């Protein structure tokens, strides 16, 4: 059996197991009488997904037919799949999974970690450089990050379009090249996602520097690096930037900045004491799933 045939068989088996685990009441249907199958009937799934019964039956039989991402999404919703299950279904179908809401990767434990990393600046960042959460030291590392709208809290946007961030980088050319090459590497895994396409298009329109770097096609990997910054109040900051991917999906990472000399260490301590009455961690409330015990991270904003 070929690799494609094996994948179609696994795809078909996965659909059947997801269908058989559900009862009519789980999807708002009447159970009726004399049901001879475990779980839902095929015609019920087809109706819920808005696809033809013959088409859905062929999918469960492992026929060599191609399903669009719209059809796969509809079937995943009809079968009440989790995001992990939906992504597995897409992978078996040989289709790139849709982008997740990466804010869901920010857990209360991650917010606690940001608080415990104080006074070191630290943040939760997505592969697209969206900042989803950050501690007080990071908040004031360049400017007051809380002052930016939530959808503008993005390192790539800031370093290519924000004069404040650009002035803060003593090695701006190197920093811009590095972030563009890392974005290019991540884009290879998300190139067919509309959100990523729009994001890159926006940067190309708003920043000639980014447009030039993007055309070069350089690709860079994830690794620690030195950040040389000039803070308007605390002077030069020489930091080692390190990151650690979090979550099974690898959609986000914790990034933190360690001082590399005593002067920077003293400056970072002072940075952590700015606005001492404010929360230790900042993040949009929609980025934090409510834990089962109702506990929130220490000092997190709502």
UniProtKB/TrEMBL annotation:
The keyword Glycosyltransferase does not apply. Keywords: DNA-binding. Pfam families: HTH_31, MLTR_LBD. One of its GO terms (molecular function) is DNA binding. SMART domains: HTH_XRE. CDD domains: HTH_XRE (cd00093). It comes from the Bacteria. Residues 276-302 are annotated as: Disordered. Residues 14-86 form the HTH cro/C1-type domain. InterPro entries: Cro/C1-type_HTH, Lambda_DNA-bd_dom_sf, MLTR_LBD. The keyword rRNA-binding does not apply. PANTHER family: BLL4672 PROTEIN, BLL4672 PROTEIN-RELATED. This is DNA-binding protein.
């Amino acid at each position: 059996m070929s690799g494609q045939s094996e994948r179609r068989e696994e795809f078909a088996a996965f659909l059947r197991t997801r269908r058989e685990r559900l009862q009519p009441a789980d999807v708002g249907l009447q159970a009726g009488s004399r049901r001879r199958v475990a779980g839902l009937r095929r015609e019920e799934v087809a109706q819920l997904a808005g696809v033809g019964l013959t088409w859905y039956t062929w999918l469960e039989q492992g026929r060599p037919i191609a399903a669009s991402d719209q059809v796969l999404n509809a079937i995943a919703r009809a079968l009440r799949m989790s995001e992990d299950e939906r992504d597995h279904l897409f992978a078996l179908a040989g289709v790139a999974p849709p982008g997740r809401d990466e804010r869901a990767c920010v857990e209360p434990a991650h917010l606690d970690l940001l608080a415990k990393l104080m006074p070191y600046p630290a943040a939760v960042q997505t592969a697209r450089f969206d900042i989803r959460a950050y501690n007080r030291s990071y908040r004031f590392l360049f400017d007051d990050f809380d002052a930016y709208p939530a959808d503008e809290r993005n390192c790539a946007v800031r370093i290519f379009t924000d004069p404040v961030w650009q002035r803060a980088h003593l090695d701006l050319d190197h920093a811009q090249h590095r972030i563009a090459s890392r974005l290019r590497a991540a884009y290879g895994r998300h190139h067919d996602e509309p959100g990523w396409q729009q994001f890159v298009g926006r940067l190309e329109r708003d920043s000639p520097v980014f447009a030039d770097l993007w055309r070069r096609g350089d690709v860079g990997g994830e690794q620690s690096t030195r950040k040389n910054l000039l803070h308007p109040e605390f002077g030069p900051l020489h930091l080692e930037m390190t990151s650690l991917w979090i979550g099974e999906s690898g959609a986000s990472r914790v990034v933190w900045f360690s001082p590399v000399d005593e002067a920077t260490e003293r400056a970072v301590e002072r940075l952590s004491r700015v606005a001492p009455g404010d929360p230790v961690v900042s993040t949009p409330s929609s980025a934090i799933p409510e834990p089962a015990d109702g506990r929130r991270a220490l000092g997190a904003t709502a």
